[in-house]
Structures are given as structure tokens and as C-alpha cells.
Design brief:
- Pfam families: A_deaminase.
- The chain is built from 17 helices and 12 strands.
- The chain is an alpha/beta fold and 419 residues long.
- It has a domain of 87 residues.
- The strands form 3 sheets. Strands 5-7-8-9-10-11-12 form a 7-stranded parallel sheet. Strands 3-4-6 form a 3-stranded parallel sheet. Strands 1-2 form a two-stranded antiparallel ribbon.
- The radius of gyration is 20 Å and the shape is globular.
- The two termini are 32 Å apart.
- The relative contact order is 0.15.
- Bound molecules: zinc ion.
- Zinc ion binds next to loops.
- Zinc ion (ZN) binds next to loops.
């Protein structure tokens, strides 16, 4: 898969020979501050030297430095359907005769340039699509076991290119079974990708089954029961080792799914959950995830959870209960100014919260992947190479990889020569 620059790909019977628009990766209404180029964070821990300014290019002038590119990485917050590239979407649409509302590939590409209305419920309807509308529209082209396999393999190949050595992708079955796709088609495709990706790309993966929180609880439990034979349970196939909570969080606090969490725990699985940023009741949801769910034990991990900085007891709870946060800085950077967002991440680091850096839904977020998210953190938090190694190590420690995988990755991180 092409990382960036020229892309040549055959999509079904349609041959595409196009170039990614140089400025397509970051287009949206968010205005950069006037002092963007000279901006220095208040809490600087040392400056990064390698960033090459490239105004108008990918990531608003940032390029991924050789140091970030080569850093061994772990990704713990990525939705596999959020890695569906426009090229693969186009190809699968043709292969499966799924109509797209775009006449040409270029029109499809253009549709990704929008910055979505984050939440209509919170922000009001201004005519722009929400992220979730775009995301679920993309899912329509995934029909066969081979489609899901290809999606998984494309992401794992991309992992290899970015030196992501281990990953825990989120997936769900509910978005597909409601379209008439049997759950086993989804699960078998991902299982084959998990196995082949480890062999072909040397990228290990343990996947996370997500409940769609804006759908009925009973439907989610049925989906979990149907997927359970693919879990890492005695006699199971070993695809997923954890459950998560995803989709629209509006008025859907974590405790609504407490019975599901207890069932997963009983099955020996880990529990993580999204606590969306600046969503209604965001800090209350973080509170539940730290102190209330899983019979008061708290989640094993929290996805996003940036609103923990709103209340001191949340920071303290994360620290004392050793609950890591899987942050996705570019997802927030689409909606928050540089000098507002990145000091929050620095504050979490300074408070001793274990955070790691991830991509969320890169193809729906201006094609910014984990390496781009790490570069943004490196630059805008003013971190040193040593700090970035620490963040990469946080990912290893926060993961549910085997001791063997963790130890191998830690050895590689130990061997990095810091400038
Ligand atoms: Zn997410």
C-alpha cells in the first residue's frame, strides 16, 4: 500500500492512476493560530530538531522525522474499519457491486477532505456529516470474508511500514450483521488476517471486540455471545482478548454496559472503553470508567479520556489505579487549537498518567496515522527523544501482549540511541 505521494492501484475493473493531493491530508475549517510557526509550549521538556517545515503539506507543515519513523511502536487505539483507505473502498465497491454516491475516484477522495461535525447532538446540525455517518458509510463495501481479510491485511502491512510491531485493533460485528453480513464472515476474515499478518509482516495482533453503545444493550450481548468462540477463551480461536465500548457516547455512560463487562471479565477477557473528548458528561463518564465499572475495580484501560484533566480526583484515580489512557492527538487537534490541546497532554504526562499515542480512525482523519500522531506530540508538546521512547514504552506496558513480545519490544527500546 502506498504510504503517501503517488498511488497506483487497480480497483476492480477500474484502473486508477492518481496522485494524492498534497494538501488533502489536512483540510478543514480549524484555523491555525497566528504564532503557529513559532509556537513553543509552556511546559517544554526539550526541543525536537528534526522536523522539516513544509507549509501546506501533510499535517499542516509537519513531516514525520526519521526518529519517529524508526521508533518501534505499539498501537492500542485503532478501529479497523477506520483504516479502510479510499482506494480499497473503491475497489471493494466495484467488486461487490455496492453503489457509491461518487461518480469517480477523485470525487470519493474529495469527500475525505471535510472536517466532520463532531457530534450533532452537542454542536447542532450545520449540514456537515458526522464522523460516524462517514465511517458507517464506508463499512457498506465490506461484504465477504475476503473483504474483511483484505482490510485487516492492508492495515497490518501499513503497520510494518510504520514500524508498528504489535497492535490491538478494535472491531465490531453489529455494524455488519445489521446489513445482513453473518458475524462469522467478519470474524473469520479478521482471524485469517491476524494469522497471516503475523507471518507475512511480523506484526502481532490481539483484537478487541466492541459493543456499539448507541445500540440496544441486548443486541450487543447477543453479538458478544455469537463472537465468543473467536475469543481468547478456553477452546476459543484467539482473535480477541478484550472487549471495548465504541460509537456514539451521547447519553450512553459506561455503566449501561456493566453486565457485559462482568461477563467478559468472567470469560477472562480485558475491558476497555471509550470516554470521548468534550462529549456531554465527559468527566462523569471518565469517573465511572475509573471507579465504578467492573464491580468497582475500574476498566483495565480507557480510550481517549482526555477530560480526566478537568478534575483532580480523576488524575489521581488514573495514577493510583494504574489505568492507561490511549490518546489520539490528531483526533482532538481537528477541533482544538494547538496551544490549547497539547499542554493538556503534557499535563497528563506531568501528572504521572500512563498515556500512549495512537491513530483512532486514520483514513477518516485526514490520513494521519500513528506516526503522524506521534510526530505531532513530539513537536507540539516539545518532547525530547527520551520522552518519546517513554511514550512508546508506555504503549508496550499498557498493551496486553505476551510477556515475550513485551520483553522483545522493551529490549529494542532500550537499544535506541538518544541524541
Ligand atoms: Zn476510537
Amino acid at each position: 500500500m502506498a504510504a503517501q505521494g503517488a498511488l497506483r492501484q487497480t480497483a476492480g475493473s477500474v484502473s486508477i492512476n492518481t496522485t494524492w493531493p498534497k494538501n488533502a491530508s489536512y483540510i478543514g475549517p480549524r484555523k491555525l493560530p497566528n504564532n503557529f510557526n513559532t509556537y513553543k509550549p509552556a511546559l517544554s521538556l526539550g526541543r525536537c530538531k528534526e522536523v522539516i517545515p513544509n507549509p501546506g503539506g501533510k499535517m499542516n507543515g509537519l513531516e514525520i522525522s526519521p526518529f519517529i519513523r524508526s521508533l518501534p511502536k505499539v498501537e492500542l487505539h485503532v478501529h479497523i474499519e477506520g483504516t479502510l483507505t479510499p482506494a480499497l473502498r473503491w475497489k471493494l465497491a466495484k467488486r461487490n457491486n455496492v453503489p457509491l454516491k461518487y461518480a469517480t475516484f477523485e470525487e470519493l477522495l474529495d469527500s475525505y477532505k471535510v472536517t466532520y461535525n463532531h457530534r450533532k447532538e452537542v454542536n447542532g446540525d450545520d449540514g456537515r456529516p458526522t464522523f460516524l455517518e462517514a465511517y458507517f458509510a464506508g463499512c457498506q463495501v465490506l461484504c465477504t470474508e475476503h473483504d474483511f481479510y483484505e482490510l485487516g491485511m492492508a492495515y497490518l502491512e501499513r503497520c510494518k511500514e510504520m514500524n508498528v510491531r504489535y497492535t490491538e485493533p478494535f472491531f465490531d460485528t453489529q455494524a455488519h450483521t445489521e446489513r445482513g453480513i453473518p458475524a462469522e464472515v467478519v470474524l473469520d476474515g479478521y482471524l485469517r488476517a491476524q494469522q497471516e499478518g503475523a507471518k507475512q509482516f511480523n506484526v502481532q495482533s490481539n483484537w478487541i471486540f466492541c459493543f456499539l453503545r448507541d445500540r440496544p444493550f441486548e443486541e450487543g450481548m447477543d453479538a458478544y455471545e455469537a463472537a465468543r468462540p473467536w475469543a481468547r477463551v478456553p477452546g476459543g480461536k484467539g482473535l480477541f482478548h478484550a472487549v471495548g465500548l465504541a460509537s456514539n457516547e451521547f447519553d450512553k455512560p459506561p455503566l449501561l454496559f456493566e453486565t457485559a463487562f462482568l461477563k467478559a471479565k468472567q470469560d477472562g477477557l480485558y475491558v476497555t472503553m471509550h470516554c470521548d473528548v468534550d462529549q456531554k458528561d465527559a468527566a462523569d463518564h471518565v469517573h465511572e470508567a475509573i471507579f465504578d465499572v467492573c464491580a468497582g475495580q475500574g476498566a483495565d484501560r480507557i480510550d481517549h479520556g482526555l477530560n480526566a484533566i478537568d478534575r483532580p480526583e480523576l488524575l489521581q484515580g488514573l495514577r493510583t489505579r494504574k489505568i492507561p489512557l490511549t490518546l489520539c492527538p490528531h483526533a482532538y487537534h481537528r477541533r482544538q487549537q494547538t496551544e490549547v490541546l497539547f499542554p493538556k497532554i503534557t499535563k497528563l504526562l506531568d501528572a504521572g498518567v500512563q498515556i500512549c499515542i495512537n491513530s483512532d480512525d486514520p483514513t477518516y482523519m485526514h490520513d494521519v496515522w500513528i506516526d503522524g500522531n506521534m510526530q505531532k506530540t513530539y513537536t507540539y508538546c516539545g518532547l525530547s527523544q527520551r520522552d518519546m521512547v517513554r511514550l512508546a514504552r508506555n504503549g508496550v506496558e499498557a498493551s496486553w501482549a505476551s510477556d515475550e513480545v513485551k520483553s522483545r519490544l522493551n529490549q529494542e527500546l532500550d537499544a535506541i540511541e538518544i541524541e
